[in-house]
Amino acid sequence: MSSNSNVWMFLAFGTGIRRQFRPVFTARETLRLNSDPHPSVLRGIGRKGSAPSFLPRGRPSAFPPQEAHLHPPSPPPEEPAGADEPTTGAQIRALERSFKDRNALLDARGRDFHAVLQGALRKKLRNTAITRANSACLPMGGRVAVKYNGVNEGEERKGGHGIPKVSMVPLIFLIFYEVSGGPFGIEDSVKAAGPLLAIVGFLLFALIWSIPEALITAEMGTMFPENGGYVVWVSSALGPFWGFQQGWAKWLSGVIDNALYPVLFLDYVKSSVPALGGGLPRTLAVLILTVALTYMNYRGLTIVGWVAVLLGVFSLLPFFVMGVIAIPRIEPSRWLEVDLGSVNWGLYLNTLFWNLNYWDSISTLAGEIENPKRTLPRALSYALVLVVGGYLYPLITCTAAVPVVREYWSDGYFSDIARILGGVWLHSWVQAAAALSNMGNFLTEMSSDSYQLLGMAERGMLPEFFAKRSHYGTPLIGILFSAFGVILLSWMSFQEIIAAENYLYCFGMILEFIAFIKLRMTHPNASRPYKIPLGTIGAVLMIIPPALLIVVVMALASFKVMAVSIVAMIVGFVLQPCLVYVEKNRWLRFSISADLPDLPDSQEAAEDDAVPLVF
């Protein structure tokens, strides 16, 4: 039978078929184009002859009027109870292919394929934070089809690049290393203020900084489950200019932070290899270490995640053993030693702040996380316990087990305490753990920085080549840029690195807090799979203490650090308009990923929650 005969048969029996078989629409075909469809079937398409609401305003209707006779719609019946039953991707693709065959369409009278497809795809998108479909009109013969770029079956556990996503356990240790990596580096808090203020400081900072930042990351990261993280939050709330400034400040802060880990690594190793204490051997060691860890990052985020698990266990275990050995020697009176007159407040606050921040770094990898709306909040809570406990346990036991001489408490002093308490074997174990922990810090920080650049490129803030992935699924250009920045900044001292990165980080956190509150006010009904159980006023009160802390940390910065940081931010203010000019003149290619949804307004968000999928 010819194709023309099939069409005439379809039109001739249209009335009878409609009573037995409801018209079917897939994500790649739209048969009702210029009619007034039932709102629960085609939400978002306007009145007859108008353009659908999901097209940009002002675009003329692409639907030809001669197609109106194809779709005299009737209100759809109640959705069958089995519509939410799982349907495989192969079944969906087979059904979609069958709809393109008119003979198969006529033979399918007794089956409600619309309900099957809608139920299956709704199950995939029910928890999507932003459900407005990105659409593009494509020619389909004499009609116009609407291509929806949504979540594809089979990509729940894999990214669009086919690489497995990060699961719960690796995610916990990725967060652990992005924030902490173990108690290495907390020694300066005792040197600056003594044991009592060091212990109290870690407790208070966890309450007024770490918990609020982790909660905001959980809410915003599940609201925007895509790479780029805080850049996307600020862009959605304050616009692309401030989104770029957020990305610039946070990327610089992350690269400066990463430049610290080769320094710490060599500080722990130089007691065994004195030649690495300075000069050309130290420079070559930094270079070789950076190249080796950069290659490991290039091989894939899944590998980085499981390496972080192994390194985390190995790095924390010697401190547990050291704490057990220290128990018989504990003298509680040593905890109470305090001399407020000799406190170095700048070093004290910067050390606490550096060891308890960067909870938002994991948000730049949200697009690589398996089921981020459920996994991310839980992983953040588990990592918070692991980080704070990993600081307080050795700090409490070691400060009470050995006499406190504050001048001794500097980078690497825990290995000396291990020698006193357990001997050479424990000393060597702590040194090895410190070295490997710095490797974990480097790997995870570089992952966060490079995926942030990828997310910015997907949003059109950076040239398109930043969004290119290697065959391992990793952002190659972002990794290379981050590694180059680490090498350039590795000459800075430990204290200078901490102060410089904290200053830039504070600038970024101010923008994050503003974006968080603004989105709470302007989009109260937007889908938030995890929401902090506070209203707008409660959210404002929650961020007041960390905001005040930011002001204090920035005020205590040295003039050198302050000047360098301000110059860096001015560079960002100039760089963004320059990139816009480059894009306007087409000197470099910029593009926006079609898979990124836009933030709907509050009314649309409420509708999206009620009707999560339309086709």
Write the layout of secondary structure elements.
Elements: H1 3-12, H2 14-20, H3 89-99, H4 102-107, H5 113-125, E1 134-140, E2 143-149, H6 168-179, H7 187-193, H8 195-223, H9 230-238, H10 240-269, H11 279-298, H12 301-326, H13 345-355, H14 372-401, H15 413-422, H16 424-458, H17 476-489, H18 494-522, H19 536-555, H20 559-584, H21 602-610
Antiparallel strand pairs: 1-2
Helix pairs in contact: 6-12, 6-14, 6-16, 7-8, 7-13, 8-13, 8-14, 9-10, 9-18, 10-16, 10-17, 10-18, 10-20, 11-16, 11-17, 12-14, 12-16, 13-18, 15-16, 16-17, 18-19, 18-20
Summarize the structure.
The chain contains 21 helices and two strands. It has helices spanning 3-12, 14-20, 89-99, 102-107, 113-125, 168-179, 187-193, 195-223, 230-238, 240-269, 279-298, 301-326, 345-355, 372-401, 413-422, 424-458, 476-489, 494-522, 536-555, 559-584, 602-610; strands spanning 134-140, 143-149. This is Polyamine transporter PUT1.
Description:
The chain contains 21 helices and 2 strands. With 615 residues, the chain is an all-alpha fold. The radius of gyration is 28 Å and the shape is globular.
The third-level CATH topology of the largest domain is: Amino acid/polyamine transporter I
Mean pLDDT: 77
CATH architecture verdict of the largest domain: Up-down Bundle
CATH superfamily of the largest domain: Amino acid/polyamine transporter I
Gap from first CA to last CA: 30 Å
Uncertain regions: pLDDT < 50 for 5+ in a row? 3-74, 77-89, 95-157, 600-615
Major sheet: arrangement of strands: 1-2
Class computed from helices, strands and strand pairing: mainly alpha
Using DSSP, what is the number of strands?
A: 2
Number of helices: 21
Helix content: 55-70%
Overall shape: it is globular
Question: What is the gyration radius calculated from CA atoms?
Answer: 28 Å
Helix-strand topology string:
HHHHHEEHHHHHHHHHHHHHHHH
**Major β-sheet annotation:** 2 strands, antiparallel
CATH class of the largest domain: Mainly Alpha
